[in-house]
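Re: beginner question about structure tokens

> Can someone show what the tokenized structure looks like for a real chain? I only ever see the sequence side.

Sure, here's an example I had lying around. Input first:
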Amino acid sequence: MRFPQAFRLVAWAAIAPLLLGGCSIVREFGPVVEVHTLTAREAIELKRGDILTRGKLSDVTAQTIRVAALDEQACEKPVSSACTEALAAVTGVATDRRLAALSELWLAQAMESGPEQQAAWLETVRYAYAYLFHGDHTPGERAFEDRQTQVRDWYNYAVERAASTMLEVLHQMPTQLPAQPRWDIAGWELQLDMRGERLPGSTAVPDELLPASSLSFRGMRSLYRRDGFGAELVAVMPDAPLTSAPTREGSPSAKHSQHPLPWSEMSSSPMTVLLHPDGDDLDSVLHTRTARLTVHDPYEESAIMLHGQRVPLAANFTAGYGLWLARANFNRQSLRSLLGREGGIDRPHVYLMQPYDPNRRIIVMLHGLASSPEAWVELANEIQGDENLRQHYQIWQVYYPTNMPIALNHAAIRKALEDTLAHFDPSGQAPASSDLVLIGHSMGGVIARLMVSSTDQSLVQLARDRGRLTPKQIERIDPMLRFEPFPHVSRAIFIAAPHRGTSIAGKPLGRWMAGFIRFPVTVLEELAHTLVPDAAASSPESLGNIPNSIDNLDENDPFVRTAANFPISAQVRYHSIVAKANADVPIEDSDDGLVPYHSAHLPGAQSEKVIVSGHSVQQSAAAVLEIQRILKDDMTKRKERLH
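And the corresponding structure tokens:
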């Protein structure tokens, strides 16, 4: 029987409200599903945004809360303990999903100030660690998952914060720490294991422990770090400033016998810190109240084994170096040294850029006039940032007073390097003591060349001919005027070095600048004591007119003219990097604004790289790349020789 169309419409109008109203005999309709198009930026932010990057819980954690039938409002900031307790008790959610969400929830709670903050950091570590090593999958199986990267970052950040708090506890402990100190924090028993790290100096506890991620630098082109597991920190140790020795009335000889050590390690050291909750399975990790905090040297360890997994360690190779340079105040001090003012330095000092390693070859860097270790910021950072170079080389930077005559500076630098090598390798048998590489810029390049050259009688004869010194005085300074190539140097790189001097030093501007240079009183007294050892005559006035460093850089200076002819050791392979300020000028007629090509050029060099640049060419990317090329080529040739 067919009903009229009008009747069917009326019947449908009467029945539809019952159906749409949720009548028990009909399936209830779900929410209406809509679709929206996301931009690439929105899509990635949705996948990767979390409590650290956007100040709110990640989308996956929010989904987990909903799937677990928990109160979303109770799990939003401020996160309540009821939320974490309820989620920890849920059994119907996948283990990985639950552990990751709990780690982020505890992190959100830790980031809110309160008396239970330290406990929340440790709980963040607990659940992140459990997810990474005792979840449904191994770290390798999740290698490409954004979620694992998020959880690793939460772990690293929580360890960073927890370790910084623990430093305060260490400062309150006795000066002589036990080998593996233990203490109670927030209901946990924590044990410190620092066997994997050696801090600079003799102090067991750093003055500061700074998160590397919190440091930002100007004046450095690149930041080099390694992604991985662990908190990237910088341990800052006490660093006694290098200044001229205080002048005192009395015997100069007493003063000369009390010099500080000629070397020190960089005072800010990178380290990687891990926090291991005790336990070998998921249940024990989730219920333990004990943990080990282990400290690792990123120069020595790139990965460790944890629960059967090879885990790469995070590291930051720029932060410690940048912090040291930023706090050292070299810029002002080097100018004071040049002028012989109080607050400058009066003798060379060797800075080790990392704790001494007997198996890494040493690169010795010598800066130029009125300069300091800051001159090498780009080169040193790039070498430390290059994994291949970092594994084979360690950097020593020589900081010296650039007002001194070149011959005296050479002798003092040589002695400082000899003493430093003798301290770290008394037998001279370590690989680090052989195949040294010298790199010198400007006046440092001239000194580096003298360190690989052989002298004859010419300097002694020069001292006689100038008539300023008596035969007895010449006899006393004879050791400063005779030298052989520094032992075990196999390669040298000279950068914008005025081997034959420069006309600038002899022009009115150069002479005017030279007139401002003064030697520190301590240096004058030492020279006077050497040349005229009797107390009555031992005074600065007895020295006459000693040439300073700018005098020695004059192309007409007898010293530089004589030294330019000294032969370089046949055992040393050397390279030149030359700058020309004007690209359009023929190379033979060019200069870098200070040093002409004919002065920087050395016959017999293994290579000569000409770069369009001013005199500070050592900072240019092109020069850094050339030096890296030379070092890597040297590594290859050395391997070939050894095999």
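Each token stands for a local structural state, so reading them left to right follows the chain. Residues 22-26, 245-257, 535-539 have pLDDT under 50 and may be disordered.
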